Amino acid sequence: MNTFIGLIDKYLILCFNLIKNKYMKLLELFLDWKMAWFGLIFLGSIFNAIAFELGILENNINFSYACYAFGLLLGLIAKFRQTWTWTSKTIK
Fold first, then answer.
1. Is 17 in the same domain as 37?
2. Does residue 15 surpass a pLDDT of 60?
């Protein structure tokens, strides 16, 4: 019985380590693309709010996608340049 419980314990530890490794890889991937996420979520929201206040979204609601796409584009440019376009300091 003790060997069976020992095998279960080893199996659970192995499963936990596999899940932990997958989680860490996902977290590293998310953090590597942090500038792109910032551009998509934050800058896209700002551009969307500006378009809403200017009344652009009243006639064409799909323009909201363009606002977020533009934010993502700025984030991707910043990610590959490793700096935002309005600063000269490199972010790492």
1. no
2. yes
Interatomic CA distance for residues 77 and 84, integer angstroms: 8
Same domain, 17 and 5: yes
pLDDT digits (tens, 9 = 90+) for 60-76: 888 999 999 999 999 99
Residue 78 burial (C-beta neighbours within 10 Å; 0-12, 13-18, 19+): buried
The reply to whether 50 and 91 lie within a common domain is yes
Q: Rounded to 10 degrees, what is the CA torsion of 23, 28, 30, 35?
A: 170
Dump pLDDT digits (tens) for 16-61: 888 888 888 888 888 888 899 999 999 999 999 999 999 988 888 8
Placement of tokens 């095998």 in the chain = 7
Per the structure, how many domains does the chain have? 2
For 5, the domain range is: 1-30
